[in-house]
Amino acid sequence: MKEKLKSIMDEALQQISGSEELEKLNEIRVAFLGKKGELTSVLKSMKEVAPEDRPKVGQLVNEAREAIESKLEEKITAFEKKKREEQIKSETIDVTLPAKKPMMGHRHPNTIALEEVERIFIGMGYEVVEGPEVEYDYYNFEALNIPANHPAKDEQDTFYINSNILLRSQTSSVQVHEMEKGKLPIRMIAPGRVYRSDEVDATHSPSFHQIEGLVIDKNITFADLKGTLEEFCRELFGKDTKVKFRPHHFQFTEPSAEVDVTCFKCGGEGCRFCKGEGWIEILGCGMVHPRVLEMSGIDPNEYSGFAFGVGLERIALLKYEIDDMRLLYENDTRFLKQF
């Protein structure tokens, strides 16, 4: 029995010493010390040993187990130490190397321009209101005094989903939703994405952004409209900016006007940026048509108001002197990081 135990121990120690993998050590532990291991088999055969020899044999079994376990722990520790040294070597950080500068994002030119416009109007007591981009034909056209046979409702100009639902072509529909609530007075701007069937070029896109404004209250006049937009243009383009109103036609306002500002590049003297005219068209506006008020449940004899609309991209193009609208959407970081 003694020779058998010595043979088992020597065999185990030899396999442990020759092992090159941690997984192999686990196999050796199971083979010799497991429930069906060789040392366990010796213990199970103790009944065959004479009673007076059992204490001595038991002691030899324990000594063999301790020797095998000690060798296993020694080998496992050596493996772990080697692995740790290799890990430290592979993960060494050279503190003398220059640090990697993280790429930080920033606001898009459109976002910068929008936040500036919102700041100006919020400072004048307006609230910012949003609405759905998928809209009913009624809110996008009918409620704004644009009848069924109007050219703007042609499928070549507007993205129709079906005969009653479309992608909004203007954020004026948000104004109708607000008027229908009946909570007067109203002072709001409605920024958002709109869609029109335009070819992509330097000044057009099938998807762009608008900012529409609306004021409804008692005794609102065209003078209020002029004063509001003059203040807005001076805040946006500079205190020396002059504003000019030209008669125009819109279905949902009467009277209506186009608004020009003096070229902030040349101060109104004429340059390449303003094509020598000294003025730049900036937005459209007018007094809300009485029929629009009536369709939204507002008495035009008691209330009046004005509305205006400006393209967000147009503001960004003018303010930052960008000559191609496509640059705003091409995601070229060489361009965007200038803002």
TrEMBL record:
- UniProt remark on cofactor binding: Binds 2 magnesium ions per tetramer.
| Record-listed E.C. numbers | 6.1.1.20
Output the HAMAP family linked to this UniProt entry. Phe_tRNA_synth_alpha1
What lineage is this protein's organism placed in? Answer: Bacteria, Bacillati, Bacillota, Clostridia, Lachnospirales
User: Is Magnesium a UniProt keyword of this protein?
Assistant: yes
Task: Tell me the residue numbers annotated for binding Mg(2+).
Answer: 254
Give the main localization category: cytoplasm
Name this polypeptide is given: Phenylalanine--tRNA ligase alpha subunit
* NCBIfam families referenced in this protein's UniProt entry, alphabetically: pheS
**One Gene Ontology molecular-function label:** magnesium ion binding
**Residue limits of the Aminoacyl-transfer RNA synthetases class-II family profile domain?**
117-330
Its subcellular locations are:
Cytoplasm
Which BP terms in the Gene Ontology apply to this protein? phenylalanyl-tRNA aminoacylation
What residue ranges are annotated as transmembrane? none
InterPro entries for this protein: aa-tRNA-synth_II, aa-tRNA-synth_II/BPL/LPL, Phe-tRNA-synth_IIc_asu, Phe-tRNA_ligase_II_N, Phe_tRNA_ligase_alpha1_bac, Phenylalanyl-tRNA_Synthase, tRNA-bd_arm
Q: Which cofactor does it need?
A: Mg(2+)
- What is the native source organism of this protein? Anaeromicropila herbilytica
Subunit structure comment from the entry: Tetramer of two alpha and two beta subunits.
